[in-house]
Amino acid sequence: MKLLLSGNEALALGAWEAGVQYASAYPGTPSTEILENFARYPGIKAEWASNEKVALDNAIGASFGGARTLVTMKHVGVNVAADSLMSLSYTGVQGGLVLVSADDPGAFSSQNEQDNRQYARFGKFPCFDPSDSEDARQFMGVALEVSERFKTPVMLRSTTRLSHSKSAVEAKVPEKREFQPLPKFEREEEVTRVILPAVARKRHPQIEQRLLDVAAWAETTSINRVEWGDKKIGIVTTGIAYQYVREVFAGFSILKLGMSYPLPLELVRSFAEAVDALIVVEELDPFIEEQIKAAGIAVAHGKDITSLCGELTLSKLRAGALQAGLPVAPAPQEVAPIDEVAVPARPPALCPGCPHRAFFYNMRRNRAKAMIAGDIGCYSMGVLPPFQSMDMLISMGASIGMAHGFKQAGGQESAVATIGDSTFFHSGMSPLAAAVYNQSNITVVVLDNRITAMTGQQDHPGTGITLQHEEGTPIDIAAVVRAMGVKLVEEVNAWDVEGVNKALKEAMEHEEGPAVIIVRGACVFTPHFHLQPRMRVDTETCIACGTCFRVGCPAILKSEAVNEKTGKHKATIDPLLCTGCTVCMQVCPVNAIAPFEASYKEEK
Amino acid sequence: MAEPMNFLFVGVGGQGVLTASDIAAQVGLDLGLDAKKSEVHGFAQRGGIVESHIRWAPSVGAPTCEKGTLDILMAFELLEAARWIDWLKPGGTLVVNRQQITPMSASVGDAVYPEEETLLAALKKRAGKMVVVDALPLAEQAGNSRTVNTVMLAALSAALDTPAEVWEKAILRRVPEKYEAENREAFRLGQHAAQ
Question: How far is A6 from chain B (nearest CA, A)?
Fold first, then answer.
């Protein structure tokens, strides 16, 4: 049966078909849906871990126990897991272990464009690169076999375009499968998994040999294949780039590599000898190109025709090829863009009803006295107008450490760190421990919306609900921070504008170590969020002061009505978007905003 | 066999653009072609730009269309039609919903949402064929404002030389049974509006 599956759905299917028994992950775009889909199959265990390193450590334990395991994360998540990953390469694995790294060329929803194929060379393990959903499904099985045969962790690299594109897959309907307990644990006779220095020194040459063995296997596998065409040009390519190559260079010879590390260099060499000019097409870094050149194989074109930066596209590849004088079809003729009127941008914004709104409105009011360190989540939008209340943001959990360092180095302003609930459990607790230990007077604002919101509403230790929908034990953030020795801990209702302001001011003035405010309010996409009677602006009363526009709500629009004295537009509220959160009502200085109907609940 | 086609569906988060594009890709398969689709939904959950590429061909390569090669631009929102019109191939078809969703830049900033007539005139000048649908009132008439995407798909099916029943079936496969009647009605209204 042919089904249209996304790359992520296909990876999940492939893992299930190949007998993966245990999977762990931390959500991160574009990887999140892999585990969400895998979790639905029978006879398996799938979990959200609190961060990517925990996810990998979970998988390592499962693998050493003998289970086939899957661990998935976004590219920057691999940085978090890298400590274990690098040494896992030395210990090797028992049950097959595949780490899916979902990279984000184009940085559609990430802080950088790092090319994680580099990790394979750095860590000395193989990297597989599917080009569509059918590849994704099949390569998962191949990767697990390679992992077990060569006792190595394996990276399977996806990208946003692969993960979030759908293509036809030959899908099997899941049969029943019972969860199998692992065989009795067998202690190693020769220690390899306790990676003491002496063990590491002994293992290292074995790892180098393993890489040569995998390279020899790579010469024989059918996932590296030649598609012969016109031999004037031969293109070596991999991953999603293959799809652009087969269109732009239609008719020419292609060496499609299913793995980017280690390379089947003899296969590349014989392909190069058979064609007049060898071209390497890959997204981001010249990862394959450099390996081919280092092997002494002449490359006519590589990164001179595709950019080191951004996502590769058909247009970009065609333009690069044309500029180099290569025989490809000219760019299509385009319709002229609209120039009669300006087309306004549609920047991202916090959703109507968002529990982060009242906090950022208040942060803006207090920002003159503050330096604000942000973190990864929807609240990153606190940097955008109308809030403009974020001064630094670097990685998951970094806000607290940055605020601390700023303050300890003599920062004169109040140092405020804003961090989400899921991010707090990911990597917010250890920097808070350090801040308590070293007694810095920082303000930590936990924006607790009861969910991992930006990646599409995943549960986490603070909600206690597991990936497979079991009720667990929710961890109380307030109790955790009190137990860590924080003296000022305040929980406030996220939609109480003055309550949030009062707590923020108090925390910013606190001088006995870190103060923690927990701003509690459920994300509008969770079942915990309740729609309230919608708001309406009384146009007569509205003085067009613009205060409500400064809460940055997409439901608040400029009205046709104008204040005749100032010429400024009054406000109006889109009833289709309004959730009745009341933040605009609370900030209106003339009480022009009020609920106008009973409730959503009474509607059909 | 149906002709190879490049579609781009654009709109605003919450309009059902992604579901509609899933259905359009499935129709490609149902018509005996290969099909791929690819979407970008940025980091705003609600209210951000959504774009989804759909391609039908005997064997599809890239999951994204190349600028200037769209047979169909399907815009669920008027301003988004203007933003993406230059992706259309000369002579290509624009199916556009008249609905306007004001972006934050216009509601709070100095940007202005252009006049409807200005936009429609500019679009008409550039599209080979333009089908304008007032999808929201039609969806409401069908009994559910969330059937906007069914209205739009129906209009698209009428603009293409493909059997309408393949589209209707593909839509109904995605719809919970209790919403079937209103989606059937939305499909009928959308088809009618496009003729």
Answer: 9
Q: Of chain B residues 89-118, which have a CB less than 8 A from chain A? A: 89-90, 92, 102-109, 111-115, 118
| Strand ranges inside A441-586, DSSP E | 442-448, 488-493, 515-520, 535-537, 556-562, 569-573
CA distances A343 to A149, B17, B79, B114, Å, are: 57, 21, 7, 7
For tokens 């086939």, the residue is A68
Are B79 and A346 an interchain contact pair (Cβ–Cβ within 8 Å)? yes
Can you tell me the distance from the alpha carbon of A157 to that of A161, in angstroms, rounded to the nearest whole number? 12
Between positions 87 and 126 of A, the ones with CB within 8 A of B are 108-109
A74: closest CA among A147, A6, A163? Answer: A163
- Per CB-CB distance under 8 Å, the chain B contacts of A554 are 46-47, 104, 107
Q: Which residue has the tokens 């309004």?
A: A578
| Residue among A164, A240, A315 minimizing CB distance to B67 | A315
**Cβ–Cβ of B29/A331 closer than 8 Å?**
no
**What torsion do the CA atoms of A552, A556, A562, A568 make, to the nearest 10 degrees?**
0
Contact between chains at B122 and A341 (C-beta distance less than 8 A): yes
Chain B residues within an 8 Å CB radius of A335: 68, 85-90, 92, 126-127
How many Cβ pairs within 8 Å bridge chains A and B?
182
- In chain A, which residues have their Cβ closer than 8 Å to the Cβ of B119? 338, 341
Total count of residues recorded for chain B: 195
Give pLDDT tens digits for A475-498: 999 999 999 999 999 999 999 999
Q: What are the beta bridge partners of residue B93?
A: B72, B129
Whether B173 contacts chain A with CB within 8 A:
no
Q: Are B194 and B133 in contact (CB under 8 A)?
A: yes
For chain A of 604 residues, list the mean pLDDT of each consecutive stretch of 10: 93 97 97 98 97 98 98 98 98 98 95 98 98 98 98 98 96 86 94 96 98 98 98 98 97 98 98 98 98 98 98 97 97 94 91 97 97 96 94 98 98 98 98 98 98 93 96 96 98 98 98 97 94 94 95 91 94 91 97 77 40
Which residue in A80, A101, A251 sits closest to A162, CA to CA? A101
pTM of the model: 0.96
Helix (H) or strand (E) holding A7: helix A7-17
Are A346 and B105 within 8 A, CB to CB?
yes
DSSP class of A379: G
Distance separating alpha carbons of residues B156 and B24, to the nearest angstrom: 10
For B35, residues 6+ apart whose C-beta sits below 8 A from its C-beta are A4, A167, A168, B25, B26, B27, B28, B29, B54, B55, B56, B60
* Selected residue of B38, B85, B148, B179 to mutate for chain A interface (largest A Cβ count, 10 A): B38
DSSP letter, residue A582: -
From the list A247, A343, A349, which residue is nearest B62 (CB)? A247
pLDDT tens-digit series, residues B62-110: 999 999 999 999 999 999 999 999 999 999 999 999 999 988 888 877 7
* E strand intervals along B115-184: 129-133
Classified as helix, coil or strand, B24 is helix
